[in-house]
Design goal:
With about 350 residues, this protein is mostly helical. The chain has 17 helices and no strands. Helix 13 runs antiparallel to helix 14 and helix 14 packs antiparallel against helix 15. The termini are far apart.
Length: about 350
């Protein structure tokens, strides 16, 4: 953030270029007189107006410039800072006006103007002029991060998010912006490693945050991360055995590997936690029917014709699956959560209960 202050001061210094022989103390005095005049003008202006905010901005930039010259070394190497205390006290009330100005333009969707005021607010908050006072950096930094992210300036967005992370009121939202910035800047293996470590840390802090869980699943779903996905699911059920989603995830991974018994056990764990967990109930039905199909294929390969006992065993499996599907149909009659009707039709066909 110091970099911003430096460039601001350099820019402003061009408007106050001294004549030959004029020293920093004289410059500080002249700029301070300008601040006196600006303060007098502001008292005659209505607040909450574009004109008021522009003049506040100009005055606060002068204040930073004045402090820069005021703090310049004098003979002997000392620093006088004649105006720092007085300017800090009399201008403090105008620092929040920079935040107000930011939101004034933010609400008008004039984002560039909003960002200028928010940046100046942070520059003031980091100036020695206002070090004695507690300012609202977290909120301002969060909105700067948000606006920077909207402009796809992920480097700046992450930098401001780091500031907002220090404020407990904005830490959670700032963390989401930061991790999304990291995601959008993935280029090297090192980037991916840092991203994954940061994401896992955030997930451990707030394991129920669906945003982080979703981002982790997206990362692990990429080709080449199958083993990491399995390990993640295993670790999650160990660390959070009360979380139904972690058991469901573990079940889904076993489903992909056709490990039907293991998958069923995981889904049943999820259902024990939430007896109305439609997705887990449906997946249990699917796994049971898949087991029945595997059994049927196995029996048919070993025999020319299935015996009555074999048919009875296979149908019993499908009957068991049908009980779970019927439960799903009662909980999700309009198939808003899962498409269970197709599975039911397949079961009915095997059992000879389909309508002709």
């Amino acid at each position: 953030m110091r970099k911003n202050v430096y460039f601001l001061i350099v820019l402003l210094a061009t408007f106050f270029m001294p004549c030959k022989g004029q020293n920093a103390q004289k410059l500080a005095r002249n700029i301070n007189r300008s601040i006196d005049s600006q303060l007098d003008t502001l008292t005659r202006l209505p607040a909450d107006s574009a004109t008021f905010y522009k003049r506040v901005s100009r005055m606060m930039k002068n204040a930073l410039l004045c402090d820069f010259y005021d703090a310049s070394p004098i003979k002997g190497g000392g620093i006088s800072s004649r105006y720092r205390d007085s300017n800090g006290k009399r201008l403090l009330r105008y620092v929040p006006e920079l935040e107000n100005a930011g939101f004034f333009y933010y609400n008008k969707r004039q984002n560039s103007e909003a960002m200028d005021y928010f940046r100046l607010y942070l520059d003031c908050s980091e100036s020695a002029l206002f070090h004695k006072y507690e300012l609202n950096n977290g909120q301002v930094a969060y909105y700067l991060s948000l606006l920077s992210y909207g402009k796809k300036d992920f480097t700046q967005a992450e930098r401001f998010a780091d500031v907002a992370l220090k404020d407990a009121n904005y830490a959670r939202d700032a963390a989401e912006i930061k991790i999304n910035c990291m995601h959008n800047r993935l280029k090297t293996h090192a980037d991916s490693t840092q991203y994954l470590i940061a994401l896992l840390e955030l997930h451990d802090i707030t394991p129920t945050n669906s945003v982080y869980t979703g981002m982790l699943l997206e990362y692990f779903s990429a080709p080449g991360h199958e083993n990491e996905m399995k390990q993640f699911a295993l670790d999650e059920t160990r660390k959070h055995p009360e979380n139904k989603e972690t058991w469901a995830l573990r079940g889904e991974i076993d489903m992909k590997d056709s490990k039907w018994d293991e998958a069923i056990r995981s889904f049943e764990k999820a259902i024990d936690i939430d007896s109305l967990y439609v997705e887990a109930i449906y997946n249990t039905a699917f796994c049971i029917c898949s087991k029945a199909a595997v059994l049927q294929d196995s029996l048919q390969k070993s025999k020319k014709k299935l015996s009555k006992e074999d048919v009875k065993v296979v149908k019993a499996k499908y009957e068991e699956g049908m009980k779970w599907v019927n439960l799903v149909s009662a909980l999700d009659p309009e198939e808003k959560t899962v498409n269970w009707k197709r599975l039911l039709e397949q079961i009915e066909k095997v059992l000879g209960k389909d309508k002709k």
